[in-house]
Design goal:
Two copies of one chain form a homodimer. Helix content of chain A is 28%, strand content 25%. Chain A is α/β, with parallel strands linked by helices. The interface between A and B is large, with 59 and 59 residues.
Chain lengths: 365, 365
């Protein structure tokens, strides 16, 4: 597959040394390998792949995911959906309750030009969804979001899932489309028990849960509970990150994105200061020590951050980085990192291919 | 002072209910009160006020700070300097080592149209600064950044400050401009001892530390060590936030910015889910519990976050928020929050004045 055909790169030079730092640098070959491997797993397991574009927010990569076999995409907010729709993508699932007049109007607008589906986890949002369907002049498919252990959004019990499914089925303009959940990490057994119970109740009520959708990159390679679903949503797997390596979902060689930084100061022999802080790496810890690490320095950690400063612990390194050196940080959590930058850089190994605008960054809510 | 004259608001309706969430909402009257109070303190203490615009990143507010008496502004990166220069602001201090060819070129460009000063904390960066001065065809004033206890950038000892000051003085095109530090919170005594020692050494070397610049909003109202400085840089004080209240630097009524969110789900009686997560509030903890709190709900906390979900603990509240309710979150750390949004909303009490673009958000590094 020629993934480059989807890109129009801005020329920013050919070498890493030509780039302004800090900036995310993404290896397109690693991206393609990650996408191909995950699609093959979906195909082997027989479920639909519906990648979450919140991680990359790039139309070119969403188009590549679809060419590789994804059924459609997942979006987390209307702004992402609008950008992807403008990029020609029509099959999308919005995994967030749509609440509020402006947002329902925007949903109706999207319904006129895409096959967007949504979720709901409470009956209070159904009136608004019915209203959007009426405005769009067509039916809206709604999945019931289930809290199967993660303690986030979602109905709390299989009984409640069945009750809400019936309410959707009865609501004007709405079509019950199935069940959706983001399980607790490592607890897909719990998820499966919930979904089975809910599906049985739905069946008795004469309702068909056409889609049973789960998600999450950390557990994607584990088989537990997968026999109970027919759709998988994952985002981070396109780039991976330090937290995914810690979770055993990837190796460091699978991490496609690093943040290129410059050493700007070496105040002590143990401390190198880089020009990337919380406004470049985010302060997401995800249970780990430090805010990122440098593979080329044997895992040296960003042990502290200000907004524009990263504090790199080089106490264990004989070959200390010097002022002006470029250092690539593997971030803890890659999704909010790309959200901080207007542009990201694609590379192939050490060769810079060019910059692209992060299409859906900072789009209206 | 008519602070509104600096703004060109985009009309987004007049009521909070008209807004799309999540979005930062800033009370202009509280901003003006915070700015006026801080300028009065600077005037009473006899030091120059050089506010850090990293917090607001808005040309209109920088212009208001200057009209109120600020000598100039502080910026943390060239992108901020360029935006402020385009807005007509010429007196600025860039408190970050400038490293790399592109950045030195941009510094030279700024020198041609502004009175920008910079800092340095090591001799390796001086060649580049001299080169920028030569390109600009004028001298560049450089302050020595001192690590007086914060453990970030900065020379480590007064001796080193004097050595670097002499190197600046001797470098072609560079003028030694004084000392700059961001002290450790609560440790301005340590700062004063360092600066006094350095100033004495400079004096013996025949060098004049014209500017002695300190900073930090948390300690701005404490007197310790202030007799040793003649310039103060603070950013957060324009808006304040939960961490500043925790530090005793402000009351909640001084917090000008909150993030307006919508309750999208109430999965349990103890949990209300809002449409603002780490991509709206950041995951900055700054030593506190939770990621923000709701004053109108007696300090109810955002106890967990996903990227687009906030988990609000309403276990202690009898009057539970309902789906569709608007909830205003006081964030832990306001600076990285405004950096996440393309636009922010200004209000006067409950009246919406309009939206403005965050001028220096996402500007090139």
């Amino acid at each position: 597959m020629d993934i480059l055909k989807y890109f129009k790169f801005e020329d920013v030079g050919k070498r890493l040394e030509d780039l302004e730092t800090p900036v995310p640098v993404i290896d397109i070959d690693v991206v393609l390998r990650n996408l191909t491997r995950w699609q093959a797993r979906c195909d082997a397991k027989g479920f639909a792949n519906r990648p979450h574009i919140k991680t990359h927010k790039l139309v070119p990569l969403a188009l590549a995911q679809i060419e590789l076999g994804a059924k459609g995409i997942t979006v987390q907010k209307l702004g992402e959906a609008e950008v992807m729709a403008a990029g020609g993508i029509t099959d999308m699932l919005l995994t967030f309750n749509v609440v509020g007049g402006h947002k329902l109007q925007r949903l109706a607008d999207l319904m006129r030009r895409t096959e967007i589906k949504v979720v709901a986890d409470n009956a209070d949002v159904l009136d608004g969804l019915s209203h959007a369907a009426a405005q769009a002049g067509r039916d809206l498919t709604v999945l019931v979001e289930c809290d199967t252990g993660a303690g986030r959004n979602g109905v709390q019990a299989p009984e409640a899932a069945a009750v809400l499914a019936k309410a959707i089925d009865a609501a004007p303009g709405l079509v019950f489309g199935g069940l959706m959940t983001l399980p607790k990490n490592g607890a897909r057994g719990q998820m499966a028990a919930f979904l089975d119970d809910a599906a049985a109740r739905l069946s008795r009520a004469g309702l068909d849960a056409a889609t049973i959708s789960t998600g999450g990159s950390p557990d994607m390679w584990k088989d537990e509970g997968l026999a109970h679903i027919n759709e998988y949503r994952a985002g981070t797997y396109i780039y991976y990150d330090r937290s995914q390596v810690a979770a055993g979902a990837a190796a460091y060689d699978d991490c496609a994105l690093s943040v290129l930084t410059t050493v700007v100061s070496t105040p002590t022999t143990d401390r190198a200061m880089i020009d990337a802080g919380s406004k470049a790496l985010t302060s997401d810890l995800l249970g780990m020590e430090g805010y990122g690490e440098v593979r080329s320095l044997g895992g040296a950690r960003v042990y502290n951050m200000s907004e524009e400063h990263g504090f790199l612990d080089v106490s264990k390194h004989n070959d200390k980085p010097k002022v002006g050196d470029l250092v690539r940080i593997t971030p803890n959590h890659v999704c909010p990192v790309t959200n901080l930058f207007d542009k990201v850089i694609f590379v192939r190994g050490e060769e810079v291919l060019g910059a692209v605008k992060v299409d859906a960054r900072g789009t209206v809510q």
